[in-house]
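(Fold this chain)
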Amino acid sequence: MSEAVRESMEFDVVIVGAGPAGLSAACRLMQQAQAAEQELTVCVVEKGSEVGAHILSGAVIEPRALNELFPDWAEQGAPLKTAVTEDQIYLLKDAQNARQIPNGLAPKTMHNEGNYVASLGNLCRWLGERAEELGVEVFPGFAAAEVLYNDDGSVKGIATGDMGITEKGEQGPNYMPGMELHAKYTLFTEGCRGHLGKQLIEKFALDKDSDPQHYGIGIKELWDIDPAKHKPGLVLHGAGWPLEKGTNGGFFLYHAEDNQVVVGLIIDLNYSNPWLSPFDEFQRMKHHPLIKQYLEGGKRVSYGARAIAKGGFNSLPKMTMPGALLLGCDAGTLNFSKIKGTHTAMKSGMIAAETVFESLAAGDEGGKDLNAFTEKFKDSWLYDDLFRSRNFGPAMHKFGTVLGGAFNFVDQNLFGGKIPVTLHDTRKDYAELKPASECKQIEYPKPDGKLSFDKLSSVFLSNTNHEEDQPSHLQLKDASIPLSVNLPKWAEPAQRYCPAGVYEVVEDEQGKRFQINAQNCVHCKTCDIKDPSQNITWVVPEGGGGPNYPNM
């Protein structure tokens, strides 16, 4: 009904998502247009309430792509002010003890000389300002809800979601139909597990020659700490406790500016024990003396979570299709051996911008499969960066933290990432979950309210909000599966893998029911990835809903 009254706007290029890939593409497009004195219309749609609102990353940022995009970024005031001064890498042996790994025995990719501790959200805000100065139209608060196609099957653009639809699916008093944005080329840069990117991968079989994508969940907090404990530029990474054997992951703690540290835990989503709760593993990790020494006496000021596409080179789909490109973490360009995806996402956007501009400048009217992108990608440092790290994740999954780390040391330090063998990891993450009856239940300690906290108080710090009277953006293909299949077989793991308390099995006089608290959702996408029945589909809620991350 609403489609009949949707208005449309025409652009040369539409970009979905104001993250590092999308904004870098927008800036590079306009830089080229201005240099060629050619008119170009570019728009960026962003589902967050503002640019940066939904951006979450560690982050230690390698400035390689930024150096190319804005060589004078420091003079322009880019928010990269805290250079890394020291790397420390640890193996947490148990709840009390840690062993520091000499930097010479760590893979070279874990070294951070020349990098910066920064807020990726703030960097995206800065990039958004540069894009607008260059003439890009940026539309925050508008969620791209649908891919539009031309009659020949090529991508035509996107439609933003309708506003003011009630929970019953009816048009409410504040109803406003979505807008169609048509383009010669559409760039999809939604971040990890983008819901339109997921559809495009399936429709165009973009992953038919790739390994399955692999994911982690990253949970992060921002803390104000005692100035006496603050060491700007100190970077800690580590693995081991509290994760049990067979569960891969690692922690990070970065000393940023203004007496703040960011602390987090990444857990690979191929874990097998359905009793595991990534949120609770993170909460108890902060009690380890190595971490506690910095946080004790401090104040937690923000919380967030996000899935991470970490399959790397072997899992990359074809990134081009008629009328569109799939870029950044939407395609999975993160370099997991460095635990970094900002520079790679930015570079993918820049390569896309150069490919699209060259084609349009030559008179292209759009709708083509831009194979020139693939050639430019293969000739770039981005391809080399990802190729050299292709074995890192599969080695950890196949051999575990210690032996996998040893393999990666040999591969990265002795062979420069070009050891003459390629490891593959072909099992999908959700398929690794074992029946609950075969696994040990995990008893998590009660949070103390000083170092560790509960989910609801954490979600509060993420500033998450959704319009209450709207359809749930967490859709079940079959509403009976959570109780009829997932509960008896896996003790309904959604209750635990979700880091925001969205999913609950509630028991009352009528019996058990599966409850979805969509208001709590921080848009991490873990449920879409880890549900063992693949029964949950994450779609965009009404534009502007979700977390509002400050300085994250």
Summary: Residues 167 and 469 are 5 Å apart (CA to CA). The first strand starts at residue 8 and ends at 16.
